[in-house]
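User: Second chain of the day. Same drill as before.
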Amino acid sequence: MNARLFEPVFIAVFPAVFLIGLVATWLAMRRREIDMEGAPPIDPRLLYPSKAVMLVPWGAMFLQSCGVGLSLFAVPRPLVWLSLFLWAAGFSLAMAGRFGLGSSFRVGCAKEKTVLKTGGIFRFSRNPIYLGLNTTFLASALYTLNPVVLLAGAGLAVVHHRIILAEEECLRRMFGREYEDFCGRTGRYL
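Assistant: Same format as last time:
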């Protein structure tokens, strides 16, 4: 592959695979009559727009890789390589978390009892999806060295933290002591 094409293709593949995987599993769960839409854990006016805002850091990273100069400074090559590593690691964590949840995955708080997942990737993080997504925002900020991308990523990380805190309350109500034991063994992020 042409060296000039490597970065844009590499950067585009991860979110594409992640989003295609989400849509495919949503369709599969729908066919099985499993409702992935839980109760919004935070105000929907903040929750749903935050999902769209994720495209800002992701899109900025892609545009920068295509030669659109979003950076205010020259990005050193070691920082570019670190960003690409974090990008791949972040999406890999998010995908491992999503697929590790299987049919227990919900957007928000489940309306019915599901299975508490504590094995696999969840032995290391109670929130690998959010940890992974936040890692991709960091990768975007480092890759572009753009303050708008940094602010968008930081804002999204704050919203994700609020979602996590609210979802923890849902899980405490649903699983009680089993969830408390899980929290004692496994960190919120790591």
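The mean pLDDT is 95.

User: Great, on to the next one.
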